[in-house]
Design a protein that fits this description.
41% helix, 85 residues, Rossmann fold, 3-stranded parallel β-sheet, globular
């Protein structure tokens, strides 16, 4: 069994892995090009990426400083994504 990081255990994080499932779920929503979406606990950003492709603006709130760093790096080129620590 792999060793988990302490922050993952203390924050009880679970991460989606299927981008296909996320795209399907976001596609089934009513989120559109005029919407601002708040995402609480973005993790690795799999949902963020899908939301950013359909919403006007995505505000991501993430508590884990390491994940915040990764999210900022991943989405730095998108003007419609804001990462809040």
């Amino acid at each position: 069994m792999g060793k988990r990081q302490h922050s993952q255990i203390s924050l009880a994080q679970n991460f989606l892995r299927s981008s296909k499932l996320v795209r399907r779920l976001v596609g089934m929503s009513t989120i559109g090009p005029s919407d601002t979406v708040y995402e609480i606990g973005a993790g690795n950003g799999i949902i963020t990426a899908s939301l950013a492709s359909v919403a006007k603006y995505v505000i991501v709130i993430e508590k884990d400083p390491e994940l915040v760093r990764r999210l900022r790096e991943r989405f730095r080129s998108l003007d419609n994504v804001e990462i809040v620590e």
